[in-house]
Specification:
Length: 212
């Protein structure tokens, strides 16, 4: 019966990629795809309307970033179950996604069975990290530079990511639905937290963290 199936919402702006793992997941008799979204705003609306059991989310979305979307979904529903499925292997992305409230983090370079297994783990409210990044993530958290990524809030992380993409304060404010002044204040706070004084030093710090 349909009610016995785990209901999934897929969020990825690449339709061909989305179709590929849709077929993989729907090959399991106890999983069903109830909706798809290509942007953060679509995803938020679809989640509100469909109330899926698990949301499978790519971080690279065209409007707001996936980390900010995770933060907003958790604000709306503390019980939301989110599995990040992304190309980003850098520990800072995994750290920020998990801090924002995701239960799982799987890279797109993982074997298909890793994704399927992670869906079941997240549906059961268990945390899961794909094996290909687990050692790097542990090292980053325990190593001397791990504290840098820990200093940034999920929103500050998204603002930093957009700043590095060359977006203006006004553009970032429009994407995140906040004032440009708030973005400017956050820009200052980000530099202070990372211990840098200029945007050039900020870029160098971002390179060390794997954001560039």
């Amino acid at each position: 019966m349909m009610s016995d199936k785990t209901r999934l919402l897929l969020v990825d702006d690449h339709a061909v990629v989305r179709e590929g793992y849709r077929r993989l997941l729907e090959s399991r008799p106890d999983l069903t795809i109830v909706g798809e979204a290509a942007s953060a705003r679509e995803a938020f609306e679809q989640y509100r309307l469909l109330a899926p059991d698990v949301l499978v989310l790519d971080l690279g979305l065209p409007d707001m970033g996936g980390v900010e979307l995770i933060r907003r979904l958790v604000q709306r529903d503390a019980g939301v179950r989110i599995l990040v499925f992304t190309m980003h292997r850098e520990p800072i992305f995994a750290t920020q996604a998990l801090r924002a409230g995701a239960l799982g983090y799987v890279t797109k370079s993982s074997a298909p069975d890793v994704l399927v297994a992670a869906v079941y783990q997240v549906a059961a409210r268990r945390q899961v990290i794909s094996p290909d990044i687990a050692p790097e993530l542990a090292f980053a958290l325990l190593g001397p530079s791990g504290g840098l990524s820990e200093e940034l809030s999920p929103r500050e992380f998204e603002i930093l990511r957009l700043l590095l993409d060359g977006c203006s304060a006004e553009d970032i404010g429009a994407r995140l639905s906040i004032a440009a002044k708030t973005v400017q204040n956050s820009h200052y706070q980000i530099k202070a937290k990372l211990g840098v004084r200029s945007d050039i030093e900020l870029t160098r710090a971002a390179i060390r963290l794997g954001l560039i």
